[in-house]
# Entry
Amino acid sequence: MPEILFQLTEDGSHTLYLPEIDEHYHSVHGAIQESRHVFIKAGFEACEAQQPCVFEVGFGTGLNALLTAIEAEKRRRKVRYTSVDLYPLALEQALMLNYGKIFGEETLFANFHQAAWNASVALNDWLSLHKIEADFASMPMGENEYDLIYFDAFAPNKQADLWQQEIFDRLFRSLRPDGIFVTYCAKGVVRRMLQASGFVVERLPGPPGKHEMLRGRRPSF
# Structure
């Protein structure tokens, strides 16, 4: 296992740092702020499906999943949440993260990480979780399966194999009409690949520390 360091971000929540590749799991300007801004506000809240099927590239710390579960219960929306990660955190590392404590959801957060991989698990009345331990770069996907995609891979210069045209083509086909794709990344090359896949792409204001982010929608026509 590569060395993983815990760091407090500016909003008091943890991020993880991988010295081997000089990369953080979440923004040092605020892990929770970033996830809420990119994936909940620009993604979950914008998704029109009443019972959305969510697909996440990069389960990582489980923060996006936790925030989605909290929001699903608040809005009374049942969610089917699927997430893929090739290198899951060790359970003891995951349980040291402070997200559950911050939200008073320590049991729920622990359940996300204790849930079996490669199986569907009902975590509560509002969210079922299916974690897949696999290399997304070569993982097959069905068509018209999802209403919302969280693309939370490491940055393009750190995990280049996941920022390729074929990847975005596959994600586009996996979305249902009017489905939404969101990512923290706003690079022009990524925007152009999304457009080439068929997405209608918006540049949106980014979270603290980032000027912009991207949201794509699969047209209904």
Observations:
- The domain at 30-217 is CATH 3.40.50.150 (Rossmann fold).
